[in-house]
Design a protein that fits this description.
This protein has 201 residues and is an all-beta fold. It has no helices and 16 strands.
Length: 201
C-alpha cells in the first residue's frame, strides 16, 4: 500500500480499505486475497432492525462504462460466507454480487441491492462447480451482474440502477462464522460495456 492506496496492476485505480480489513495481500498482477474476521457482514434487514456494516472491502473509483471480472476462490464453510464484488456509493446505497454459502450448505449466486434497506435475492445454486467468475458492468446509469460457471458463457443475473457514483471493488464476509479468506483471481478490467446483456458475451 502506498500513500495513494493499494495498487493491483489489473485494476486501473488505487484501492482503499473499507471497514479495516483483517488482512489483504496482492498476488502478482491480477490476484488479491482479502480476509474477513468473525461475524462480518454488509446487510440491512428490510424487516428490521438488524443492520450490519463491518465486512472488509477494497474499493476504487472507475470512470465511464467498464466491466470488472474476477474468479472467486474461497473455502465457504459457514452459512453466508461469501466472496463479493461490491458497488459502494455510501452506507445506505450499495450492491453486492456474491458467491455465498446458503443455509442449505450450497454455494449460491446471491445479489443484494441496498437502497436504505437490503433487497436480497438468491439465484443459481452451484453444487459441483469448480470455476466461478463474477462480473460487474456499468452501462451509463445502469449496472449489470453476470456470472460464468465452468465456462465462458456469462449469465445475466441482475440489471439495475443505483444512485450516486459508486466505487467498485472486493469484499469478504463471514456473518455466522469465524472468518473467511477470499482470493479474487484473474482480475480483469475492460473499458466499455459488454457487447450484449443477454447473449452470454
Amino acid at each position: 500500500m502506498t500513500e495513494e492506496g493499494i495498487s493491483l496492476p489489473a485494476f486501473p485505480a488505487p484501492l482503499r480499505t473499507l471497514n479495516e480489513p483483517v488482512a489483504w495481500r496482492v498476488e502478482g498482477d491480477d490476484a488479491i486475497t482479502l480476509t474477513a474476521g468473525p461475524r462480518t457482514d454488509l446487510f440491512t434487514d428490510p424487516g428490521g432492525p438488524d443492520r450490519f456494516a463491518n465486512a472488509p472491502a477494497l474499493l476504487g473509483r472507475l470512470d465511464g462504462d467498464f466491466t470488472l471480472a474476477a474468479r472467486i476462490e474461497a473455502d465457504l464453510s459457514s452459512t453466508y460466507d461469501a466472496g463479493v464484488l461490491l458497488l459502494y456509493a455510501g452506507k445506505d446505497t450499495w450492491a453486492k454480487f456474491c458467491l455465498e454459502l446458503s443455509p442449505q450448505g450450497r454455494p449460491t449466486i446471491v445479489t443484494v441491492v441496498n437502497r436504505g434497506v437490503s433487497d436480497d435475492c438468491n439465484s443459481l445454486s452451484l453444487d459441483g462447480a469448480e470455476d466461478v467468475r463474477l462480473r460487474v458492468s456499468r452501462l451509463g446509469g445502469a449496472y449489470a451482474f453476470h456470472a460464468a460457471v465452468d465456462g465462458d458463457f456469462w449469465h445475466l443475473i441482475r440489471y439495475f440502477a443505483l444512485d450516486g457514483e459508486p466505487e467498485v471493488g472486493f469484499l469478504a464476509q463471514s456473518p455466522t462464522g469465524d472468518g473467511l479468506s477470499v482470493r479474487f483471481a484473474d482480475v480483469r478490467y475492460t473499458a466499455g460495456r459488454p457487447a450484449g446483456l443477454r447473449d452470454g458475451s
